Amino acid sequence: xxxxxxxxxxxxxxxxxxxxxxxxxxxxxxxxxxxxxxxxxxxxxxxxxxxxxxxxxxxxxxxxxxxxxxxxxxxxxxxxxxxxxxxxxxxxxxxxxxxxxxxxxxxxxxxxxxxxxxxxxxxxxxxxxxxxxxxxx
Length: 137
Hints:
Layout: E1 6-9, H1 15-22, E2 26-29, H2 32-41, E3 46-48, H3 52-59, H4 78-81, H5 95-110, H6 113-120
Parallel strand pairs: 1-2, 1-3
């Protein structure tokens, strides 16, 4: 991607690292739709987004002629070495709900249910392997 115009969405955890590597060749967008519009219009060579959104945009025909690929691990980009994780927010004082969520998430990881759901949705089941729970630095 070096020497290409690269775009991503403002606010993503990887923006700072991309800015260091791509410098002036990095364009920031307010959302994925604006990013995709510049890709389609030819004003951008590469778009870096989350995994699901571009795949769904391709399926829906909004990115005809494009393909989505998972980025290979690169130590310059922490998120490729230790992928980001999703979080479920709930009321701070609701201890029972937190325990139930923890138990369910642990179960669907351990018994393979989450990987099956991901595959059934048309994605790579390896996406569920994001490591131990942690906070983004």
